Amino acid sequence: MTKGYKHLTKQQKAGIERLYQETQSTSITAERLGVNIQRARYYLKRRGIQLTGYRKTACHENFDLVVQLAQEGHSYSEIARQVGTNHHRVKEFLERYEIDHPGHVQTGKNNPNWKGGRVVDKDGYVLVLTPGHPNADRHGYMREHRLVMEEQLGRLLEPGEVVHHLDDDQQNNSPENLKLYPSNGEHLAETLSGQVPDWTEDGKRRIWAAAHQAAARKRKSSQSQS
What we know:
Layout: H1 10-23, H2 26-33, H3 37-46, H4 58-61, H5 63-72, H6 76-83, H7 87-96, E1 118-120, E2 126-129, E3 141-143, H8 144-153, E4 162-165, E5 178-181, H9 184-191, H10 201-225
Antiparallel strand pairs: 1-2, 2-3, 4-5
């Protein structure tokens, strides 16, 4: 039966108790061990272990990564940026599981684990620490491909401009692999040419409006030059 636990191996039973004590999450425990979550819960209850029902968060979903980054000496904000949460939740998470991480951790070049201010965000893009840049996020980071394009152009990018990776590798930020589009509408119109995506009606309207605006800008530009 689904809720029974007799089919669990000794290794699985031991793993369930150990992982649950570490994570306080039956969903993470079951996922890591590849067992049915109901069986894991039933087994823990039979063992007299009180379930907390703790909500699965971005930190829990990236448990190993958060621990690794904390042990490497990354700041709360740097960890939060990589897993897609905020530094308050990272701090609470590390304190909850008593993971060693000094709150006064040094950042930047003063940190012995400094890696040149380069990290990869949760979407797979390379971020570069550029404090003081007008387009940097609140943690002082910018996506590297946009910085590379700005250097190529000798100017700042407009917020609506899109930098596309020609080989679809988000971490290949060599100049020859990047192409600039004036807007997301023009970017999608070209990169999705020949494809038949399953757009929602609202999505179709927004794509059409963006393409219409791009065409209007081209007409206005050609008229002004004639």
